Every structure is written in C-alpha cells, then in structure tokens.
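Need tokens for this chain, all 107 residues.
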Amino acid sequence: MSKNKLALGALVGAAAGFVAGILTAPKSGKETREDLRHKADDIKADVSKRAGEVRHKAAGVADDLVDKATRVAGDVADKVATVSSDAKAKLREANEEAHEEIRKRNR
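Here are the structure tokens for all 107 residues:
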C-alpha cells in the first residue's frame, strides 16, 4: 500500500510542478492551454494504466482467496466425512454389543 501512496504522491507532485512551470513560463495562453491539455492526457493515461494494474492484482488476490477457500472447504468436508464414518462405526459396534448383552441376559 505504501508503494501506491508513494507513486500517487510522486504523480501529484509532478503534476503540480508541471502546472506551476507552465503558468510561470513565458508562453502564449494558447500554447499554455495546449501544454496543459497534453499533460492532462498523459496523466489520464497513467492513472488508467495504474488502475488496470490494481484491478489485475485484485483479481489475482481474489482468485487466490477462492482457491484457498476451496481447499479448506474440501479439507473440512474430508474431516467431517471421516469423523462421521468413525462415529457410525462406533455406534454400530455399541449397538451390536448392547444387543449381545441383552441376548445373554434373556437366556
């Protein structure tokens, strides 16, 4: 995040310096406006490029999070299935032992 702030600060500083230089330069109004228009176009293109990079990085982070969540969900599902299977087996075993004990007592 600090790299983005630094880049934004540098961009704003450069733009402010350019505008100050243009406004104090001995050019005609038409030339000054044209220079400002070109610089604004350059800044717009740079901001658009950086926004695209941020979108790309955000999409990558989102994809990574989805992958990790999917793996964790799969691991949890596997563990739940194992615990459930073990519990069913123990329940069956306890049920059989109870039936056997009842049969012994009824003899």
